Amino acid sequence: MDRYIKIFLTTGIPFGLVFGTFYHMQRGFPAGLIAGLIGGMFVGSTLSLILGFLHRRSVKQLPYEDYEDALEVKQERRMVLSLSYDKTFNLCIESLKEIKKASINKLDRSQGRIVGRTGMSSKTLGERIIFKVESVDEEKTSVYFLSEPVSPTTAVDYGKNLENVERISAFLEGQMEA
């Protein structure tokens, strides 16, 4: 439910302000205020229903077990790999090649941190992909990674961040079997 409210607020308020301002310039303050409120409520309600439905439908089509978690736009995973720190760190860098239009923004091997980013797509304005690699012992490494929208106001991603973490997980698991 809070996703629909977020969509309503991020679409209805800006539209209402712009619409109300233009109407205010033509008809005066009270008419502009009323037009802005009504227009914002109408556009916000309509878009929250449409975008919310499309987001749910897109995520439902993905093969993922926990549907409610899959609806979140911020997706994260933690894995323990039976590999050395350096090998795991390099695999995390390689895993970004599995994501379309992904590039590395920051790389700090000593801190075990990798920050990547994807470009805009038809689904989002881009995603930030962050890895945190920590050595458990000489032959085991813990990897935490997340994919989140670049824009903090993003309420729907049509499953794009879920796809990103699933691709990275599959890639890292595939390297364990190889």
Q: What do you see in this structure?
A:
The chain has 178 residues and is of the alpha+beta class. The chain has two domains: 2-60; 67-177, 2-Layer Sandwich (Alpha-D-Glucose-1,6-Bisphosphate, Chain A, domain 4). Helix content is 51%, strand content 23%. The chain has five helices and five strands. The protein has helices spanning 2-27, 29-60, 67-70, 85-95, 160-177; strands spanning 75-81, 102-108, 113-118, 127-137, 140-149. The chain has a five-stranded antiparallel β-sheet, covered by helices on one side. Helix 1 packs antiparallel against helix 2 and helix 4 (85-95) crosses helix 5 (160-177).
Can you tell me the CATH topology of the largest domain? Alpha-D-Glucose-1,6-Bisphosphate, Chain A, domain 4
Number of E strands: 5
Beginning-to-end CA distance, first to last residue: 43 Å
Can you tell me the CATH architecture of the largest domain? 2-Layer Sandwich
| Amount of beta strand | 15-25%
Helix-strand topology string: HHHEHEEEEH
Shape: elongated
Q: Give the strand order of the largest sheet, numbering strands 1, 2, ... along the chain.
A: 1-5-4-3-2
- Name of the CATH first level of the largest domain: Alpha Beta
Enumerate the spans where pLDDT stays under 50 for 5 or more consecutive residues: none
> Averaging pLDDT over every residue, what do you get?
92
Number of domains: 2
> So, the CATH homologous superfamily of the largest domain?
START domain
Q: Please report the number of helical segments.
A: 5
Helix/strand-derived category reads alpha+beta
Percent helix: 40-55%
What's the Cα radius of gyration? 21 Å
